[in-house]
Write a structure and sequence with these properties.
143 residues; alpha+beta; N-terminal domain of TfIIb; GMP Synthetase, Chain A, domain 3; 6 strands; 26% strand
């Protein structure tokens, strides 16, 4: 499916990949990377691809909810938040895969409206669209 990209960005990883550095080409962000203890690394301070994915997915989904709100005419409550939990582990088919769970806080919004808003957001959010064929995203809503 073709995409008419309106914005692009670029980053380069160096060192050992998961235990090196990553930097944006425009110089606005450089991060040290560290392999978590759970994956056989030293752990400690530093980022990893799963942390970066959680940051991006939570922000993107919350932004996409604004568009979904306009489409569904369901008012996005003030103080709404999205928390993304991303996991990594071996797949039964071989290799590694990720898990994703979103906790969506929509203060005061009735459950039926919250579900409609979240379901619509999944059709809009680029992160949801990118992984929908391979990751079952678990979503909980709270009000």
């Amino acid at each position: 499916m073709p995409v008419d990209a309106k914005y692009t960005t670029s980053a380069t990883a160096s060192g050992g990949g998961r235990d090196g550095r990553t930097a944006l080409a425009d110089g606005t962000m450089t991060l040290d990377l560290v392999v978590p203890k759970e994956l056989g690394g030293p752990g400690g301070n530093g980022a990893n691809p799963e942390k970066l994915f959680a940051l991006g997915y939570s922000a993107c989904f919350l932004g996409a909810m604004r568009v979904a709100s306009a489409q569904t005419k369901i008012k996005l409550p003030e103080g709404s938040t999205v928390s993304a939990t991303i996991g990594i582990g071996p797949r039964s088919e071989g290799g590694f895969g990720i898990t994703a769970a979103l906790d969506v806080y929509l203060p005061g919004l009735p459950e039926a409206e919250a579900r409609t808003l979240v379901d619509t957001t999944h059709t809009i959010c680029p992160y949801s669209n990118a992984i929908k064929a391979s990751v079952d995203v678990k979503t909980t809503t709270r009000g």
